[in-house]
Structure formats: C-alpha cells, structure tokens
Amino acid sequence: MLSPKLQDALNEQINAEMWSAYLYLSMAMHFEAEGRQGIANWYNVQFREEQAHAEILRNYVNSRGGRVILKAIAAVPTSWNGELDAFQATLDHEQKVTQLINNLYALAEAEKDYATRGRLDWFVNEQVEEEDNVRKIIDRLKLIGNDGLALYTLDQELGTRTYTVPSILATAE
Ligand code: FEO
Predict the structure, then answer these.
(1) Residue 60: is its pLDDT beyond 80?
(2) How far is the CA of 147 from the centre of ligand 1 (A)?
(3) What number does the ligand 1 atom closest to the CA of 126 have?
(4) Would you tell me how many other CB atoms lie within 10 Å of the CB of residue 165?
C-alpha cells in the first residue's frame, strides 16, 4: 500500500508529465505553423513519450492499490522565438522534471517504500537521456546560427524520429 503522502506525490508527478505532454504538443503545433515539419515531428514524438511517462506512473499507482486522481492541466506557452529558444525552454523544463523525480525518489526513500524507489530508477535514467538529447540539439543549433541550409538539414533529420513504446509499457500489455 502506498502511503497517502507518496500517493499524492505520484499523482502530482502524473500531472507534471501530462503538463509536459501538453507543452510539447504546443511546441509541435508552433513548429507545424512555422513550416518546420521535422522539428514538429520531433516534438510530436516527445508529446507521446510524456504521455507514456504518465501512463507508467498511472499503472504503477494502480498496481499498488492506490488511487489515481487526475487534476487540471495548466495552460502552456504557445509560441517561441525560434528553434534555439524552444529547445532551450525544453532543456530548462527537463531539468525541472529531473528535480521533481529526484524529490520523489527522496520521498520514497524517506517513506522506506523501496518498490516505488525501484520504479523511479527508470525515470532517473530516462531524464539523463532526455537532457542529453536536447543538449545535443542545442549544440547543433548554436553551430548552425543563421545557416538556412544547415537548419534545413537538421529539420530533415529530426523528421526521422519515431515513437517507440517504452519496454516497461510494452511488456505490461
Ligand atoms: Fe517525462 Fe520529459 O520527462
């Protein structure tokens, strides 16, 4: 059984993951409108990944006999000042999410809930990957500067990203 405190915190994290999904969907729509189809695709995949993160947590709360309470999803920004601005905002956001996961991890330890701590290991590793992916794109964008052809090439590349169901969900079905 999850402690009420941990259940509340996991529900908050579900809401944070849904907010992340909404943020990236908003970015996808922004870049769609800007004619950057590849970047829009990249954010669409990101949107689906965040929904998966929420689903992993939902499944986990249910598997522990807890109660998932869905809360309102706050409004998200709707436009960005170019590619670098959006990816920098993405990195800032992911760093905040990493902090949220770390806080949750610390709470699970304080509550001696080792099952929750174990499940959160997946999220700890995922955050390392998420931050690294975004950082690499930021580095590329800084090199690209105002080079339109190089930006076109990056857009094409990001257009090849595909969504893969995380194995933690694929095996649960
Ligand atoms: Fe669900 Fe991007 O962290």
Answers:
(1) yes
(2) 30
(3) 3
(4) 14
Enter the tokens of residue 160. Answer: 């090849």
Closest CA to 131 of 100, 97, 103: 97
**CB distance 101 to ligand 1 below 6 Å:** no
pLDDT in tens, 100-148: 999 999 999 999 999 999 999 999 999 999 999 999 999 999 999 999 9
- Mean pLDDT, the chain, as a whole number? 97
Q: Is 23 in the pocket of ligand 1 (CB under 6 A)?
A: no
CB of 113 sitting under 6 A from ligand 1: no
Judge if the beta carbon of residue 93 lies within 6 A of ligand 1: no
